[in-house]
Design goal:
The chain is of the alpha+beta class and 378 residues long. It contains 13 helices and 7 strands. It has helices spanning 3-9, 11-22, 34-38, 41-52, 58-65, 79-89, 94-114, 121-181, 185-211, 229-243, 263-280, 340-351, 374-377; strands at 225-228, 249-255, 258-261, 287-293, 297-305, 355-361, 364-372. Helix 6 crosses helix 8. The chain starts with a helix and ends with a helix. Residues 213-218 and 324-338 have low confidence and may be disordered.
């Protein structure tokens, strides 16, 4: 029996063996069910069978051995590439993923040998072609896994840098205030040193964000605790009013807004939306914040008067590192506009089982963040 036919007829046994092995790859596999452990392994076997049945010239075999074989797929991603992406997202390391291919190879060859295949010319050809196909799938997976791991590393660095800028700005504002009220030379020198160090840290964080500009994605973890969002939002707005003395910020609360939320992330999102409104709104006009609770959701809206956002830009506002509303020439002095703020708002909303949307017309722009309301659903 040719190897391609054998794999087709014994695919379930091969995949079951691979699933059993994958379940030992802890801790990453500890939270995965049977379907997730199998993942794209059946489709990888299908691609190998397809490869085994394709005619191959000596030149094509040589090219494949050197990594130049075309992908055997009409889809944007091969099964091996998708498998790698999902394994990276599930917390596997690259060594664990490679070991899956070793186990898959060994399982096929062990079962094939057990059914008594004869050592003829066809056997040797099938063995060579099978190893080539496994190596090709492995190469595709390793390449995609590395890219996915790099993407998530950039996400971590960018979000870390963005989150650190908030408390750093508070330190700088406090130091500058102390420098103005301090009368003694030692105090003035200390605050000046503090300001210089803070500005240097800010420059380093800006460099970190620039480094992460190339690729960002999704996924922010949250920790829900019982909280009154009205009180939490009012506290955050008090901080923002002190930082934005030239802007009036009004808060209106309606409905049930108590529940289990990640209050730190919600406050961060509120700050991002208000700062965005202050940055791009008409100077001297109020920023309105509406917090509203219903039986199913809580919505947090921030609106400001200003130039409308073109409709074609609205769908991309929440993509990472998109400037969107203003180009570099129109960005206010002293501001960086990397697009992380709205990206984080979107990810926080999604992590809470909700979403975020923007509307802009008639000189009014409003961002609305929706959060699932566990307390109301209980």
């Amino acid at each position: 029996m040719r190897l391609a036919t054998f794999i087709e007829q014994n695919a379930e046994a091969v995949v079951s063996s691979a699933e059993e092995f994958c379940g030992t790859l802890l801790p990453a596999a500890g939270h995965l069910n049977s379907a997730a452990l199998r993942d794209h392994l059946p489709k990888i076997l299908d691609a190998i069978v397809k490869d085994l049945r394709q005619a191959q010239t000596p030149q094509e075999a040589l090219r494949k051995s050197r990594g130049g074989a075309p992908l055997i797929s009409d889809a944007p991603e091969t099964a091996a590439q998708t498998h790698a992406m999902l394994r990276a997202q599930s917390g596997f390391d690259i060594g664990q993923m490679v070991s899956e291919y070793r186990a898959l190879r060994a399982s096929v060859l062990r079962l094939w040998q057990a059914q008594g295949s004869s050592l003829d010319a066809e056997f040797l050809v099938d063995i060579q072609r099978f190893n080539e196909a496994i190596d090709q799938a492995l190469a595709e997976s390793v390449s995609h896994f590395s890219a996915e791991a790099e993407r998530w590393r950039n996400i971590f660095l960018a979000v870390l840098g963005h989150d650190l800028r908030g408390p750093l700005n508070a330190v700088l504002l406090t130091a500058e205030l102390l420098s103005r009220v301090g009368s003694g030379e030692p105090t003035t020198e200390c605050t000046a040193r503090l300001i210089r160090s803070g500005k240097r840290m800010k420059a380093l964080l800006d460099s970190l964000l620039d480094y992460s500009r190339s690729s960002l994605g999704r996924g922010i973890a949250i920790q829900r605790t019982r909280v009154d969002l009205a009180a939490a939002c009012e506290e955050e707005l008090d901080v923002l009013r002190a930082a934005l003395p030239d802007h009036r910020i009004d808060l209106v609360t309606t409905g049930m807004v108590e529940g289990a939320f990640d209050v730190s992330r919600v406050r961060e999102s509120l700050a991002n939306l208000v700062l965005n409104a202050a940055r791009y709104g008409v100077e001297g006009t109020p920023i309105s914040v509406l917090l509203s609770g219903t039986m199913g959701t809580v919505t947090l809206s921030v609106g400001n008067d200003g130039a409308p956002i073109p409709n074609e830009l609205l769908p991309s506002l929440f993509e990472p590192l998109r400037r969107g509303r203003m180009d570099a020439a129109s960005t206010p002095p002293g501001h960086t506009n990397l697009g992380l703020g709205l990206f984080i708002v979107h990810e926080v909303a999604v992590a809470h089982g909700g979403g975020v949307a923007a509307t802009s017309s008639g000189g009014r722009t409003t961002f609305t963040m929706t959060l699932a309301h566990p307390a109301a659903e209980a």
